[in-house]
Amino acid sequence: MVTSPPDGRAGIDATLVAKLIDAQFPQWSGLPVVPVPVDGWDNRTYRLGDDMTVRLPTAAGYVPAVDKECTWLPRLAPFLPVPVPPVLGKGEPGEGYPFPWSVRGWLPGRTAAAEEPADLSRFAVDVAEFVLALQRCDATGGPAAGEHSWYRGASPAHYDDETRRCLAALAGRVDTERATEVWEAALAAEWRGAPVWFHGDIASGNLLVDGGRLAAVIDFGTSGVGDPACDLVIAWTMFSGDSREAFRKTLAQDAGMWARARGWALWKALLVLSECVDTDAARAAEQRRVIDEVLTDHTRFA
Question: For the stretch 183-213, what's the b/e string if a residue is b when 16 or more beta carbons lie within 10 angstroms of its beta carbon?
């Protein structure tokens, strides 16, 4: 049974997924293929039967994540406090689809973007504990931060030119003087620690909630080994007030880590705002909120 309209990106739809399964995993042939209610940008995800998902990259830039996740998620999973996607199979290009893809086990719960926990401070502690557990995982042989992680885990200096272009474009629309100060503080706070595991996109859409608690963490496509400052960005994108303080206290990171984290949050918010400032008022307002929170945080702690 196939239920899906055409996706429009990379020619992916449920009919294609069913053909790939029939050809490469005949043991699962005939199971229902249904798109998930909330999908991401990097990959298209389909429910396969009751207990599995199929995940297909939408462009070549997202392909390295397939091998990375298939290799490392099974190794990391035993050391993490909540489940991560179980890898059940890796598919090859076929049926006109040009990229490798994967079959994963289904994880119950709703994303925190769809269902914000009632006790956000308790949830913030859960997330911080996951981040710390990931950092404690053995990083030997792990994929060093770079192009495959979209340079998460590397220095935010990789995005220096882009950030300064955004600052110039947004002059008069945001406090570019204070934002520049935050950005330069992030660049100055160089990472000098031993490389550790980072997720790369700790965000509400990648955190599953069940019973108000963190139930699973998904989408390790930008993960790798390096500087984990990028994993602290959720302090401003999802948490505030008491929940942010709970997150900060549980993580117990130094000032340099937080300075780089503010840089990562600022870069992304400036980039998105520069793209939507005149076209999407709601989205722009959210990016302005994040920028304001980051600038206030810098003033408080710098």
Answer: bebbeebebeeebbbbbbbbbbbbbbbeeee
